[in-house]
Amino acid sequence: MSTTALPDSMQALILNSTSEPPIVQTVPVPQVTPGTAIVRVLVANIISYTRHIYNGDRKYPFPTPLIPGSSAIGRIVSLPSDATRLQLNDLVFIDCIVRSRDEPTDIFLAAIVEGGTPGSAKLMRDVYRDWTYAEYCRAPIENLIPLNERTLLGSPKEGGLGYTTHDLAYLAAILVPYGGLRGIRLEAGETVVVAPATGPFGGAAVLCALAMGARVLALGRNTASLAKLKERAPYTERLYTVPLTNDPATDLAALQQYGEIDIFFDIGPPEAAKSTHIKTCILSLRHGGRVSLMGGYHEDIPVPHRVIMHRNLTLKGKWMCERDDIFAMLKLVETGMLPLGKKGGVEVTAHSSMPALSR
Ligand SMILES: NC(=O)c1ccc[n+]([C@@H]2O[C@H](COP(=O)([O-])OP(=O)(O)OC[C@H]3O[C@@H](n4cnc5c(N)ncnc54)[C@H](OP(=O)(O)O)[C@@H]3O)[C@@H](O)[C@H]2O)c1
């Protein structure tokens, strides 16, 4: 084991139950164990529907009490003796997707949802229920992805990209659509409909698909949000916005104006489950087109079976991303093809340090 000097205690957000808000408390700093490392958390994202996860509205199963959290950016402060690549002080992406080592299909999202198998629920409950809304976090070493600090945070004058750690926190959002788009093998030059494109994950999908070389049709009801997306996005010459009216014939005709469409990337929230755009987007696809289903619907969605069958369409579900997707996406980021921060049209609108969370 190698370690820097750590305090005995830290501040952390503690969720005791879904019926009361989380509170900041002083708790012991976690201890390193074989296969896990301790990371000082620098920046942790807040997902748009975080409140609805932790107040129980989303009905995500998870044990309590726990330290909530999401994927984050951190620095390694304590390493177990079985780590062979990671080094003390490495800047890392802390991936919240935890997989059992002896059964990789037992998957859960640390501190968010315990997954869908008895094994994933057990692993979260017994081992990894606490996560990144704390000063320090204990994570499996395979969930700590080293970041090229010199390239990412280095000054542009010295060949770096000049990002901040806040800019890097957006990696967590982009990884979700990257997992879906890579999962259906998006190729440069293809046309992708992203719907809805105006939410945090939809916007990340637009950026991601553009960076992967696609022409993107961004669909949404809110024309002001679509205009903002168009104004800020890089590669804007390959981005087209399409207002969603929820009149199927009008929306299909609007999409068909753009010619052959290869992919529909679905990322709707539960409220959009009854929206007509899901079927419309499927109907807009060319023969042999693909659909990446990543939306968070709580109910079954009707699909145009006859068209799916006749056109040889492929529908592929995707939960989050694979570990190798993270390394592949980092290549896009480190070469500047996938710009972050202002260059990527993304800004940090608010942030809070730990003591302020208790107010
Ligand atoms: N598969 C995965 O691994 C994965 C991972 C992360 C998230 N997700 C899912 O992705 C979903 C989207 O996340 P988000 O944070 O981007 O969500 P969000 O901000 O809640 O919603 C995204 C957009 O949906 C549109 N919308 C809302 N109600 C609608 C309706 N009735 N009809 C049509 N459009 C509607 C809104 O756009 P307009 O008002 O502009 O139309 C909104 O901007 C989440 O709910 C989550 O469950 C899945």
From TrEMBL:
Transmembrane segments: none annotated. It comes from the Eukaryota. GO terms for cellular component: mitochondrion. Residues 202-334 form the Alcohol dehydrogenase-like C-terminal domain. Pfam families: ADH_N, ADH_zinc_N. Gene3D superfamilies: Medium-chain alcohol dehydrogenases, catalytic domain (3.90.180.10), NAD(P)-binding Rossmann-like Domain (3.40.50.720). This is Alcohol dehydrogenase. The lineage of its organism: Eukaryota, Fungi, Dikarya, Ascomycota, Pezizomycotina.
